[in-house]
Predict the structure.
Amino acid sequence: MASIKDVAAEAGVSVATVSRVLNEHPSVSEDARARVLAAVASLGYRPNAVARSLRTDQTRTLGLVISDVLNPYFTELARSVEEEARALGYSVIIGNADERPELQDHHVRTLLDRRIDGLLVSPTDGGSPLMLDAARSGTPMVFVDRWIPGVDVPVVRADGRGAVRDLVAHLHRLGHRRLAIIAGPAATTTGQERVAAFREALEEYGLDLPDRYIGQGDFQADSGRRVTERFLDLAEPPQVVFAADNLMALGALDAVRARGLRVPDDIALAAFDDIRWFVHTDPPITAIAQPTGELGRAAVRALVDRIEGRAPRSVTLPARLVVRRSCGEDPATNRSRS
Amino acid sequence: MASIKDVAAEAGVSVATVSRVLNEHPSVSEDARARVLAAVASLGYRPNAVARSLRTDQTRTLGLVISDVLNPYFTELARSVEEEARALGYSVIIGNADERPELQDHHVRTLLDRRIDGLLVSPTDGGSPLMLDAARSGTPMVFVDRWIPGVDVPVVRADGRGAVRDLVAHLHRLGHRRLAIIAGPAATTTGQERVAAFREALEEYGLDLPDRYIGQGDFQADSGRRVTERFLDLAEPPQVVFAADNLMALGALDAVRARGLRVPDDIALAAFDDIRWFVHTDPPITAIAQPTGELGRAAVRALVDRIEGRAPRSVTLPARLVVRRSCGEDPATNRSRS
DNA sequence: CGCATCGATGTAATCGATTCCACAAGGAGG
DNA sequence: CCTCCTTGTGGAATCGATTACATCGATGCG
């Protein structure tokens, strides 16, 4: 592959001049510029990004470490992150942690070794020493969706409390009183917050969230299935199951169906995170929709602000309730677009 | 960030010795090795991958350019690619082309500039000059899922012909005679092949595939919606719509539902590519499942073979039909697991 | 005993870019 | 006409690693 030296030789100038042309440095004669450009074209020369990065100490690359690419929420997040990053002149390397702390560490380490300019993380756990180090050692970093308390890093996330309150109001209006939740991992902020928001909202309606109605899930479909089975085995099963993410809702649906029960007649179902397929499931699933694309874009902007020396700010955007039929018919609210 | 020089100074040896320790070169004394390791630990030193890549001319990175990350099929493919690559000691950078040739070129160029060791592509179109160049200029390359005819690059893909034949047999048995297809872009091999396989299978049953029953889609949900609307507007609408990918099936479902019609009573629906949600749609959708994970792994193995100087081979794996209820009840076959 | 070999180490070249510095030529101003 | 500044250019240092080559002491063998 042609290097800058080859171009310089071909154009009859020094490598310094070639570099100047390529970087649009003002003091290059028209003549030299033309000859360099011709040489570049004839050799099909492309600058070696590796060499450039070594010299300039910047890779124009962002790292994104997410918990689970297969989760449509994160897929969409990743896509919007890449889009915004590209618009700002950065590339993105995605690391999929699969909800496994050690895999997350692997990716953080690899990305750091590659000297990415900044790191976007949706942490799987409460914070490995590695990530804490990275945050402190000055690698520009922004948390997205989930975060680690006590670490001084901007956070871009959605606030679901309002939407959860709307959901509980909706459920209460439909006459449901025994509400259960399939929680996410306690090590994640989203895992905790959604339970807290749910409990808070229930209290407003004088409802209780007993331990037997809290199932411990891990944001994967299988755990949703297992937890739902346990709910159904209870002497007094809940009337509603609220899954803290879309994959666990899928598992819950599997479990209900395997028992030959029907949603919402036998048990109602709602989910955190909306996906396009929820419109077409049987029945369509009521869900809390996050402004995913906006989150991804805001996260990139915050990170790039940090990288380029501006002050980044944390961002919190509201989620909203999308009512469908999985909790029962509710003439008062179901005019919400599905 | 500490460099190899700092480590050398701290350990009281030369950089060469540090490098030898790090690369497990045999002739290093126990004493020196211990001192270097201690220095590495105390400084928290990590080798700079950028510098290493420049010197060794290998990045241990693979590029993966896919047509649409939001399509669950490609998401799963990407995941399995990353997994296998990691097992073999490579990282993966994913580029999402969004079915847009110019975006695809952008990613190919960026990846080439970064001097990735090899490229995995699922081409959006018939082959831009850039990609043709890349293939010829010796960048190790493997096509996955889709390919470009006439380019001498190994291909890893699924063969859907058998499964399509099974599907048509199933449909025929159910009494359907007017079958339509929502095709993918003609510029993609999968776009063409699926139509060809469908037509071939129809012929075996003495059925015709008239032009009005071929709708041109682009593998996106919207196009599935538009094409289905046109089908429904025909004087004699088809009895079955076969969508060449899962997103267009989603669009088709939207369109059918918007008209107040029901699947499969008013019109049957089947899709190429199976996804987990198809089990829970209303009704569950009959689909052709590709061995996605196996494809991703095989593609990586072929590419790494090529990179490491072994002879890569093309791989074709069979897809299989998964019968559900979206085409009607068929006691003879619906014992297929859903 | 002398020479070859081997193991351990350091010096320096190298990868492909960017960029500081020196320098030459030419124009402006005194 | 002499200085001073500007513009255009090339030489060489530099980024952080790897690695060929040189060196040096110790060991082995005839």
Summary: The longest strand of chain B covers residues 61-66. Residues 3-5, 15-16, 19-20, 22-23, 25, 47-56 of chain B lie near DNA strand D (CB under 10 Å from a C1'). Chain B touches chain A at residues 1, 44, 46-51, 53-54, 59, 69-70, 72, 75-76, 78-79, 82, 86, 91, 93-94, 96, 106, 109-110, 112-115, 133, 137, 221, 250, 253-254, 257, 276-277, 279-283 (CB under 8 Å).
